[in-house]
Design brief:
Radius of gyration: 20 Å
Low-confidence stretches: 1-6, 284-311, 326-352
Order of helices and strands: HHHEHEEEEEEHHEEHHHEHEHEEEEH
Number of helices: 12
Helix content: 25-40%
Number of domains: 2
Distance between the termini: 33 Å
Number of strands: 15
Shape: globular
Length: about 350
């Protein structure tokens, strides 16, 4: 896949969603249309972040243990990432391009149901929480699609590590979720344990839910299916929020070339947005990363910067969390001196 293709997820998605919106003329779809217009507005306004393949900046265990300091750098963000086919479970359709639309402000949510699926309305909760809506490219349909429900995660409640077998034995939607996690090898093979969140599914698009019910699915099956379907994007959002809670991690905006966007606008295409990257203060790779950043700034695409952070861990101190590098993947490894060869460009790491 060309790097230019990888970096155009939001522009491509916005173009297709806008086309969907214009085609929704049926009066029965009025609520869905209102929600889609809201999603388009949010996605267009959201700062775009590129995160590593499969959406994890850090491992799941680290993000689950960092709720105290988890935060977003902006009220709404769009996390763009690719998913390899090797991560698919049985019977899953390939969806190589993903966007997790994540926000923390619920003041203007276009809720179409008073409450969530099987629970209290997210808009009625208090405290710190984030909302996650998956947007994904279907290889089979050859178009961008979206989940009919968002996941609301309560950050005030620490995740719990529980036995997958005991969790599934409670019945309802739990069985569907555990089956999904087992198919994806997301349950620890030694402890047979899994993480559970204080979260709920809140419907944004009622028509797909109605169709699922007409096809004989119970509300518990629907809730479990949606929870499982949203699992990847929720994990990406929590991983990102955990890293942003580190005191030595900052964001920086890199603008796309003006000439490229002028050409896209002239041809009626969505312009490329600025891309935001994460800066880790105190990195030992100051000189090398800075040099790659300088060359990337003139590369003619959103491929900047050249070196990126792949997985790491959070060190919990008495008064703050800090990020500690795990591994740096860069052109010196994959390209043998060519700064543009064979590397996903996600994060630049340099000393401030």
């Amino acid at each position: 896949m060309k790097i230019q293709d990888h970096l155009s997820y939001s522009a491509e998605c916005l173009a297709q969603l806008t086309g969907h919106l214009h085609a929704m003329n049926d009066p029965h779809l009025a609520r869905d249309r209102r929600s889609l217009a809201w999603v388009i507005e949010r996605l267009r306004a959201a700062p775009k972040f590129l995160v590593p393949e499969n959406g994890r900046v850090i491992d799941g265990d680290s993000s689950m243990r960092s709720f105290d300091h988890a935060r977003l750098p902006f009220p709404v963000v769009a996390l763009e990432y690719a998913v390899g086919e090797g991560t698919l479970g049985p019977n899953e359709q390939p969806s190589p391009k993903r966007i997790a639309l994540v926000w923390q402000d619920d003041a203007h949510l276009p809720l179409v149901y008073k409450g969530a699926l099987g629970g209290e309305s997210a808009a009625e909760q208090t405290g710190r929480k984030i909302f996650v809506l998956p947007l994904y490219y279907s290889s089979r349909e050859k178009m961008w699609l979206f989940s009919p429900a968002m996941t609301a995660v309560n950050l005030e409640c620490e995740p719990q590590r529980v036995s997958a077998e005991e969790y599934a034995s409670e019945g309802g939607s739990n069985e569907v979720v555990v089956d999904y996690l087992r198919n994806r090898d997301c349950i620890d093979p030694r402890s047979k344990a899994m993480w559970t969140l204080d979260s709920e599914m809140v419907v944004l698009f009622p028509m797909p839910i109605s169709l699922m019910m007409q096809n004989g699915m119970s509300m518990a099956q629907i809730q479990g299916t949606l929870q499982a379907d949203n699992n990847d994007e929720v994990g990406a959002a929590l991983s990102f929020a955990a890293v942003m809670g580190c005191s030595n991690v900052e964001t920086q905006r890199l603008d796309p070339p003006a000439a490229l966007n002028k050409k896209r606008l002239a041809s009626g295409k969505e312009p490329f947005d600025p891309v935001h990257v994460l800066w880790v203060r105190g990195s030992a790779l100051e000189g090398r990363a800075a040099a790659h950043t300088a060359s990337a700034s003139h590369a003619g695409s959103r491929a900047s910067p050249r070196m990126h952070l792949r997985r790491g861990h959070i060190r919990v101190l008495a008064d703050r969390n800090v990020w500690v590098n795990h591994a740096i993947v860069g052109a010196h490894q994959a390209g043998h001196g060519d700064p543009g060869a064979g590397v996903d460009r996600v994060y630049d790491v340099r000393r401030r």
